[in-house]
Amino acid sequence: MSVILGPIVQQGYVVPDVRAALPYFIDIGIGPFFIRDRFDVVGGGCMYRGQEYTFNITAAFTYSGEHQFELICHHNDTPSVYKDFLKDNPAGGLQHVAVWVDNIDEELDRLKRLGEDFEVLQRFNELDCYIKKPNNPWPIIQLMSTVERHRRMFTMVKYHTDRYDGTRPIRFIDEELKAFYGPGGPGEGMDTWEVTKAPGRERVLQPA
Fold it and tell me: From the centroid of its chain, how far is CA 25?
């Protein structure tokens, strides 16, 4: 669906333990990883197969060049696309690939108008949505919204990965965001990345 949705910008790996999975990537020189431990994703738009749930997850993010990597572990007992994947792949692996969209609802409507056959499996409010074509295997597709929250976080992550020298391979998202955008930080006064639309609905993040 990349011609329909635009370029893939992220590989998302679901794993039984994020911290146990990080050394593989770090040992081959990818990093630093920015981690958020055991946080709740909650709200009226947090849904799995049409039912509202609270999801407690750990997630870690990095870049390699222009490509994002995400590692995810789901901790609490609610169902999710992450647990579905681990049932089929107990050791973990590539669960989704992600594309940028400007607005999830508008993108879902656009795909329907194009006649695309897909199921919405899981959604986190206006932030993310996981869809799957019938009978397609893993990985599934994540629609990742270009909301300010994402743009601020990935601007910070990309800035540090471009300058990575192997030190501090694991860092904490919330602490790093405060330092990056705070007084004297490299992101102080910085505009977050803007999304540009090239022909073919390509979406590319570029420094504003």
Answer: 17
